[in-house]
Amino acid sequence: MLLVFLTPLVIINTGIISSVWLIFALYIISGFGMAGIGMGIMHDAIHNSYSKNQKVNKYLGYTLNLIGANASIWRIQHNVLHHTFTNIEEADDDINPPFFLRFTPHTKRYGIHKFQHIYSWFFYGLSTVSWVTAKDFVRMVRFRKMGFFKGGTTFSKELMKVITWKAISFSFVLILPIIIAPVAWWVVVLAFICMHFVTGLMITTIFQLAHIVPTTEYPLPNEEGIVEGDWASHQLFTTSNFSPKSRFFSWLIGGLNYQIEHHLLPNICHVHYRKISHIVAETAKEYGLPYHNKHNFVSAIGEHFKMLRSLGRMDSLRTG
Prior knowledge:
Blueprint: H1 2-13, H2 20-46, H3 54-61, H4 63-66, H5 71-84, H6 116-145, H7 152-180, H8 185-208, H9 231-238, E1 240-242, H10 247-252, H11 259-264, H12 273-286, E2 292-294, H13 297-311
Parallel strand pairs: 1-2
Helix pairs in contact: 1-2, 1-7, 2-3, 2-8, 6-7, 6-8, 6-13, 7-8
């Protein structure tokens, strides 16, 4: 995946490619590699499950920085908030999108949401463009208010690290190609956006299929701010698997089709999820707990489409 991401960029930065269509093709190939890094390398590494050696996990986690995002911010947003408060409005960042998207029945519904099952996919494609440009900085400010960055010095250091890594990433992914490639600058910019569109569409869709489907639940905390039930059961109620029989597909997306196993056992590498899944399914059945599973990717896409349409039409379920 690293080679799929880096090799096309190296070729572009040699300046030997003058064909506009070939520039686009190389950037798009790099986009598939970027998605592979996100799903199959950094995801396990930042969960400390890629290797038993924590130094390996640390440095492979930096592959996220290499593609323009940031491992430290992702660790808070994903490992801490998403995995602890899965599908809980306001606490889980994954279901707190911009106002024109509605991912939970408890958020306010606007008229535009009636069409979100149609236009959401376009914004999924743009999600990583937002991520590598503005979203990390927005999250840093919010996480600071939440107490994750203790003291102004720590925040300033983290901010400088984020800026430095983004400068490095943008230098070889966008700035150098604009300077070196023998094509108009806007061609490179458009190709860069296409690369991110491929990555964003793949990554966002894969993650959404695990939580924004009709079978999953969206629990709310009680008056004391506590969500009833135990953590493990919560993961089963709010998470869904898909396409469990395709080993190639599972390899391609870093085992993220086994999201239930990942949420219950995030410290275990994704290569083991397939075998673990039988134990998890049997245990869930034994205790009368749900084990949501769609047999293939297409049916999972269909379920997510239905959920987007349903959320776009139903009124808020929040009371009080």
